[in-house]
Amino acid sequence: MHSNLDLFTLPESQLLVAGIDEAGRGPLAGAVYAAAVILDSAKPVTGLMDSKKLSEKKRNQLALEIKENALAWSIASASVEEIDNINILQATMLAMKRAFLGLELVPGLVLIDGNRAPADMPVRCQTIVQGDALEPCISAASILAKTARDETLIKLHEQYPEYGFDQHKGYGTALHLSRLREHGPCPEHRRSFAPVRKVLA
Asked: Domain 2-159 class?
């Protein structure tokens, strides 16, 4: 989490808007990540868009700019164990709520990518389908969540190099499925997901 602004220096009339997005709902391995970002209108970050449409190099560059220039940002996750215990949708909502709670500033409005918002959020929320392509604060959250998760999967590759996590980031590619059948699942594979269950069976 991070804030570039002391809470008490902000004019009461200024409505803070946070964007929230997730990364990693679909993969067969690794935690699901979410990020929350409150952008600073005085320090705009150019080039924000859906993280999936950016090159890895550009995502990493923008992630640094977002962290440097945003009023506040937070990254959180829900573990593989939590995904398997409560299902991927609820784990995603949990990661989003954790990201929101990690902000050092309290926004008056939260814009969330998609059509579902976490339950019991203490502020007003608005869901926006394809919000990561429409709202800069959601785009920024998308970029932070994606880069954080990719970094974790690259580290996971160092621990379990036989699966090629550095190449597919846990998604169910032909390479990943082949390695999964060859080696069986590692502790970071989501056993509640059908391709992993199939190998276990």
From this structure: alpha beta
Number of other CB atoms surrounding residue 153 within 10 Å: 22
Element (H, E) at 147: helix 136-159
Task: Give the model confidence (pLDDT) of 122-173 as tens digits.
Answer: 999 999 999 999 999 999 999 999 999 999 999 999 999 999 999 999 999 9
Side-chain-side CA neighbours of 102 within 13 Å: the count stands at: 18
Strand partners, 124: 109
188: left (phi over 0), alpha (psi -120 to 50) or beta: alpha
Q: What does the buried/exposed string (b/e) look like for 98-125 if buried means 16 or more CB atoms within 10 Å of the residue's CB?
A: bbbebbbbebeebbbbbeebbeebeeeb
Q: Which residue has the tokens 């962290």?
A: 67
